[in-house]
Amino acid sequence: MIPVLLHRFKIQAGVSGLLMGLLAVFMIASPATFLGPRIYISFASTIPFVTILALGLTFLVIAGELDLSFPAVMAMSGLTFADVFLKTQNPLLGWIAALVVGAFAGYLNGLLIVRIGVPSIIATIGTQFFWRGLSSLLADGLARSMAPVRETWLHHVFVGRIGGVLPAQALWCLGIALLLMLILNRHIFGDHVLFIGDDIRTARLMGINTDRVRILLFTFMGTVSAFVSVMVCMEMANWWPTQGEGYLLLVFAAIFIGGTSVFGGEGTIYGTLIGAVIIGIIEAGIISAGFSGFWTRLVHGFIIVASVSVYATLFKTGR
Asked: Could you list the residue ranges that cross the membrane (predicted)?
């Protein structure tokens, strides 16, 4: 029974084992930090941003597509939120405007890739430069201070502290993960995404509207990017021209550590969720253990390469 379950949930078991192993190492190396609650509350305020982005991108990777433009979409939609809020003092209006901009950016990616036929990696590199350049031009390279947003109800809803302790973004992250897990595993749309990633020609022969599904996925990723950008703006009470930079590699690392196949057709929301947690705790664990922060990238790289190698050799996830 146990071997059957391990085979069925091999990716989930592998990434869970990696997380528990890392936590055990960090607890031994730095018990004062990792045996107390404060570090985990800190994780709950920072890890959800990477996690939500990774959850959205997981659907695209499973469908065999990539989106490298989401950091720039975050910058553009975050600027939209900041400017609308500063002019109207209405955070809800700013949030809606940001989501519209993010959805449009994602829809534009979908049109370029699906209708015109540009490969997703090329199209999204281009739109990454476009949105980053446009946001810098519109902002004139200047940041936006948003201190009054801390006093709004939307701030408390998205990034407030529940009971004065638990960051609200952690609950948003878990709720979104649960919803996407149900869609991927229990809804016909999830089946379509998996079929498209496995073999898009067969998916078409089965009657799946592959163009519509792919455009929806890119639009969804743009909307998710805008949603996270608003949360980051409210958490920091600031928008800055380089917003979103630094998320790209962390998000892809979380997805691939979580066991999603780079070839498409296979992946889990649970794996991405745990992968993002692994990425999020590494830097704190390294510094708490007394090492320089320069070790962070090295350890990230080692864990990513080791994880995908294990999946490819033991679990036969490659082609």
From this structure: 12-33, 39-61, 68-86, 92-114, 159-184, 215-240, 246-263, 270-291, 297-315
